[in-house]
Amino acid sequence: MNIFHEGLYRPLFNLLIWLYDVIPGAELGFAIIALTLIVKLALWPLTHASLKSQKALQDLQPKLDALKAEHKDDKEKLAKAMMELYSSEKVNPLSSCLPILVQIPILIALYRVLSAGLHVESLSDLYGFVHNPGTINQMFLGIIDLGQRNIPLAVISGICQFFQTRMLIARRPPKQVRGAPGAKDEEMLTSMNQSMMYMMPVMTTVIGASLPGGLTLYWVAINLISIAQQYLVFHHKAKK
Question: What is d(CA 190, CA 196) in angstroms, rounded to the nearest whole number?
């Protein structure tokens, strides 16, 4: 736990307070947005690789559907043909998972920073070269108290989550291969993804409505940046 505290929590906390000190206006909201942007930029290579892998799998889907139609009665041949296709197209179906796993500890540290690190007593964790502001102004734009729950922010976070999830969902297999042994699992996964497209925004809104506004603002910011990154990756891939 000490390694987590010193290696992740404390550096992120100090970066947040430093941003709070240097950004004009001394408003916590702008510091949270800036921190979110810095973290996303630091993780950009990982998330970029993950998104490229997801896009490559989506682009490969027509060929996979053709294989499932061709080998619908032979699972062994289908599996072999799919592996050969992945190899020839240089696509790793698992490559999008590792970047997500790497980000989890960082997201947990950010959660702790924004949930427990905004109290005056937490300022004792500041490094010697980071100015101690004494108190933290938790108002954003002069009207939103980031230390309290905020329903409008929670609703906005849910809307952002919907559009981010919608950009990532896989389409269903074509009608001619639905029901084939090789397509059943994919169709089930696609149906689950489509359900998540509606469930995730609802869950995000409900959870966001129960959390301090600072955490909800962070979730809004990270979703907006993620949407922009997904658009850049998918649009660039589509143009190529």
Answer: 10
Name which of 54, 16, 22, 55 is nearest 37 in CA terms: 16
pLDDT digits (tens, 9 = 90+) for 191-217: 555 666 777 788 888 888 887 888 888
pLDDT category at 232 given cuts 50, 70, 90 is: confident
β-strand partners of 114: none
Q: Which residue has the higher pLDDT, 113 or 155?
A: 155
pTM given for the model: 0.71
> Helix count (H) and strand count (E) of the chain?
9, 2
DSSP letters spanning 108-163 = HHHHHHHHHTTSGGGGGG--TTS---SS---EETTTEETTSB-HHHHHHHHHHHHH
Give the Cα separation of 106 and 90 in Å (integer). 29
- Concatenating the DSSP letter of every residue in 192-227 gives HHHHHHHHHHHHHHHHHHHSBHHHHHHHHHHHHHHH
Distance CA 90, CA 70 (A): 22
Is-contact 208 158, C-beta < 8 A? yes
Structure confidence by residue, pLDDT tens digits, 42-76: 877 777 667 766 666 666 677 777 777 777 666 77
34: how many CB neighbours lie within 10 A of its CB?
18
For the chain, how many structural domains are there in total? 1
Residue 52's domain comprises: 2-239
Give the pLDDT score at 174.
45
